[in-house]
Design a protein that fits this description.
Layout: H1 3-19, H2 22-29, H3 33-47, E1 52-55, E2 58-61, H4 63-89, E3 95-101, H5 110-120, E4 124-130, H6 133-142, E5 147-151, E6 159-174, H7 178-181, H8 186-191, E7 193-196, H9 202-213, E8 219-223, H10 227-235, E9 241-244, H11 245-253, E10 257-274, H12 281-294
Parallel strand pairs: 3-4, 3-5, 7-8
Antiparallel strand pairs: 1-2, 5-10, 6-9, 6-10
Helix pairs in contact: 1-2, 1-3, 1-4, 2-3, 5-12
Pfam families: HTH_1, LysR_substrate
GO molecular function: DNA-binding transcription factor activity; transcription cis-regulatory region binding
InterPro entries: LysR_HTH_N (IPR000847), LysR_subst-bd (IPR005119), WH-like_DNA-bd_sf (IPR036388), WH_DNA-bd_sf (IPR036390)
């Protein structure tokens, strides 16, 4: 069996252990489920161990498998480090850089970031992936993205954060509601319809806290789990919502929304990455470029 094949089997094994399902692992590895199953079977035969317990709900890591997984993760990390260091020695960083975006790219200076990366690291392929903040923290831990833009601080120290900006939070509504919003108090605002976000969204926590301070409960007419959907619903008159001030003022100036007078809170915009990978050449290139673009 070749060394390349052994390394690929380890990668397949770790992916199945993280996903818990052959189908999900196959999708993540961009291969077929039978191929994934064959790699696991061959690895178990090679090691003489049963790495998983097969259940109707998926693949559960066996006790022996947990030990092997820890060693496999370390081995694969070392291989990645060697490859990155070799690329740095040749003064050329190549590969696919996967960046998570949680809001409209115009508020993240993505155009300037891409231009900088293309000038400084032309061999990088850059994939932009739309994700909620909470999804990116999970994707970073699972290796699905390399870095990303998020609101709020990471949930644990395994994820490093580079603070880019503190953003004010504003309430927006249909442009025709400008007179209703002007001078409205919290009680009046709570009585109007609201477009809410899921519980694991940072904006949900900010809105809940703001209303709780005034002992009020807003009228929630719908929950939208994507920022562009929230914007469309607000502009259509479905209800009020909260968004960062820069975005709110953009829609106001475009004549699509009205903005309430009060600032209801603030939230940090961060660039995040897995702390274990902060010395990898590709991740370093991303951090360096983000710092350059956001230094002013």
């Amino acid at each position: 069996m070749s060394i390349a094949m052994e390394l690929y089997q380890l990668k397949t094994f770790v992916t199945v252990a993280e996903e818990g399902h052959l189908a999900c692992a196959a999708q993540r590895l961009n291969t077929s489920q039978p191929a994934v199953s064959a790699h696991i079977n061959n690895l178990e035969e090679e090691l003489g161990l049963s790495l998983f317990t097969r259940t109707p709900k998926g693949m559960r890591l066996a006790e022996e498998g947990a030990v092997v997984k820890a060693q496999a993760v370390e081995a694969l990390s070392m291989i990645d480090t060697i490859r990155d260091q070799a690329g740095a020695l040749k003064e050329e960083i190549s590969g696919t850089l996967r960046l998570g975006l949680h809001i409209d790219p115009r508020y993240l200076r993505i155009d300037r970031l891409l231009s900088h990366l293309q000038r400084t690291h032309s061999r990088l392929d850059i994939h932009l992936l739309q994700r909620w903040t909470w999804q990116q923290f999970d994707d970073l831990a699972r290796g699905r993205i390399d870095a990303g833009f998020v609101y709020r601080d990471p949930p644990h120290k395994k994820i490093a954060a580079l603070l880019l900006k503190r953003c004010n939070i504003r309430v927006v509504g249909l442009a025709a509601w400008e007179d209703r919003l002007r001078g409205a108090d919290w009680s009046q605002m709570s009585a109007m319809p609201w477009v809410w976000t899921p519980p694991n969204c940072a904006f949900c926590a900010i809105a809940e806290e703001a209303f709780a301070k005034h002992n009020l409960k807003p009228v929630k007419v719908t929950i939208a789990d994507q920022e562009p959907v929230v914007a469309v619903l607000v502009a259509s008159g479905i209800g009020l919502a909260i968004m960062i001030e820069e975005e709110a003022l953009y829609y106001r100036d475009a004549g699509k929304m009205a903005v309430w007078d009060e600032v209801v809170g603030s939230i940090d915009l961060n660039f995040v990455y897995n702390r274990k990978r902060e010395k990898e050449a590709m991740v370093c290139a991303a951090i360096e470029s983000v710092r350059k673009v956001w230094e002013n």
